[in-house]
Amino acid sequence: MSAEDHAADRCAHTAAPAVDLPDFPVPSHDPRAVSDAIRPDARIALSSSRAMVLLRHVDVVAAARDPEVFSSAVSRFLQLPNGLDGEEHAAFRRLIEPYFTAERMAALEPGVREAARQVCAEVTSAAGVGTGAVGCDAVGELGSRFAVRAMMRWLGWPAGLEPTLLEWMADNQTATRSGRLDATADVARRYDEIIRSVLAPRRGRGGDADGSRQDVTAELMSDRALGRPLRDEELVSVLRNWTGGDLGSIALSLGVVLHYLATHRVLQARIRSGLTRRELTAIVDEILRIDDPFVANRRMTTCPVSRGGLQVAAGQRVVLNWTSANRDEEVFGDPDRFDPDGNAGNNLVYGTGPHVCPGRPLATLELCVAVEEIVAAFADITLDPVLRPERSITPNGGFSSVPVVLTPAR
Ligand code: HEM
Q: What is the distance in A from the centroid of ligand 1 to the CA of 360?
């Protein structure tokens, strides 16, 4: 059966419009609390903007793996490759995936490690000579600074851009919190300007990369995997999705991981005792499953869906709630039970299906190296006894700040 026949077969169903669905309130603090409360009794909830929020693992996986019915073309803005479907999407994935091979990640590792060491040293020296324990925010200071530096090393961006990117991250968080469209549009426009300022010096005559800079950004500018060079707005979009994925999610993820280690001392001690990269990766992935900061992605149905009791009309906006699916009791039992190896096969932190995160190898490298260097630099990580961790607000999960106390290693 061709892909078209297959889709037509599934689209032959009719689906009644959703009725009697519970509301999915905008989470005011921990997004897990909202979905944990609804999920035992309902598989779908209705958001305030009338999107259907899929809460169960089985439904999120089915939708993510069925791009003909659950289209990713949900935004009026160019989103490469996130907003593409079908062959157009596959072509962009063929362009992108070679940038994340194991060989490239191995070559990048020393630079990422150096970035992590620098940030740990700066946090220590900021506390002053002779000071014992050091207080800092695991997201705003450690996480953000490390994320920016590691990303700039990967892409070959100038070190002088660091303050601009850090300021932009803070403004982006404020704009997201405000929920104001003009504020989020403004930070998005500013980010595009930052990217264009990086592209400009790499341009030679004829608008092509001049070849004088050998870095990932220059390579992308001269990439012909589509049979032609990327157009300007395509380059900006690809880089926006790489760096957007990188900066925010790495800082948030590091906050979640350090919060978990500060509150799970046996695990912290186990990591200090020395682990293989495979073991550490499984631990980091499992911590992020339990408290997934990358909450959701959107889809739009191309036809009615009626399957296993799930009824969704055509043209319906759908939300794949990864955070909820990653805590589904039907799959994981007690969602807070820590079982890196047992739960790995069902872990949805990096998505599934054709849009599965291409940046996973880079994210894994950055998070593992950061954890390795932080436990090497600091003999103990605890939560600050006075300042409270602050949860991010929708659309993000995790924490906007995790005040920790770090005891420098001797
Ligand atoms: C802890 C860090 C990260 C998490 C949790 C994460 C999670 C995800 C998830 C769940 C998706 C699936 C989206 C969907 O199905 O609609 C995704 C897609 C994507 N991620 Fe990540 N990501 C992370 C880091 C990164 C990094 C470091 C990059 C690149 C440098 C990146 C680039 C992308 C891109 C381009 C897509 C879209 C893929 C497509 O549509 O085909 N991500 N990510």
A: 7
Mutate to test the pocket of ligand 1, among 72, 291, 320, 357 (most ligand atoms within 8 A of CB): 357
Highest mean pLDDT among 133-137, 205-209, 247-251, 257-261 belongs to 257-261
Check whether 17 has a pLDDT greater than 80.
no
Q: Is the CB of 253 under 6 A from ligand 1?
A: yes
**Amino acid of residue 363:** A
* Residues 93 and 359 sit within 8 Å (Cβ to Cβ): no
**The pLDDT value given to residue 371:** 98
- Return the CA Rg of the chain: 22
62-80 pLDDT, tens digit each: 999 999 999 999 988 889 9
What whole-number distance in Å separates Cα of residue 260 and Cα of residue 303?
42
User: Is-contact 356 101, C-beta < 8 A?
Assistant: no
- The C-alpha atoms of residue 63 and residue 324 are separated, in whole angstroms, by 14
Q: What's the 273 CA to ligand 1 centre distance in angstroms?
A: 31
Nearest CA to ligand 1 atom 36: 357
More confident residue, 403 or 189: 403
Domain CATH for 10: 1.10.630.10
Domain membership of residue 298 as a residue range: 3-408
Task: Tell me the three state secondary structure of residue 326.
Answer: coil
Using alpha carbons, select from 375, 355, 388 the residue that is nearest to residue 283.
375
Atom 17, ligand 1: residue with shortest CA distance: 357
Closest protein CA for atom 4 of ligand 1:
350
Q: Are 349 and 288 in contact (CB under 8 A)?
A: yes
Q: How many folded domains does the chain comprise? A: 1
For ligand 1, say whether the CB of 83 is within 6 Å of any of its atoms.
no
Verify whether ligand 1 is closer than 6 Å to residue 363 (CB atom).
Answer: yes
pLDDT tier for residue 11 given thresholds of 50, 70 and 90: low
Backbone angles phi, psi at 339, to 5 degrees: -145, 80
